[in-house]
Amino acid sequence: MEKNGAKRWNFGANEVVERSSSLSIREYLNTLISNLDAGDARTVIPLGHGDPSPFPRFSTDPSAVEAICDSVRSAKFNNYSSASGIPVARK
Hints:
One of its GO terms (biological process) is L-tyrosine catabolic process. The chain is mainly α. The chain is built from 4 helices and 2 strands; from the N terminus they run E-E-H-H-H-H.
């Protein structure tokens, strides 16, 4: 479509997009939680919490922590990697 000789996009409002963009992740989580069966004794893990540290099941494996510490102590990785990444990490 042209207006004053300039081309314009011909997009209109989309009610579904406007409605859904007004909802936050917290609102979706609250909706899900409000629909849980209160009589169900199973534990619900709040995956929308954002911080896994309060939940022991989500702790970092000690071998991963040690590998990172070893890498830092070695001083072999105190530089930028190539743009495509280091081969070990890509593998």
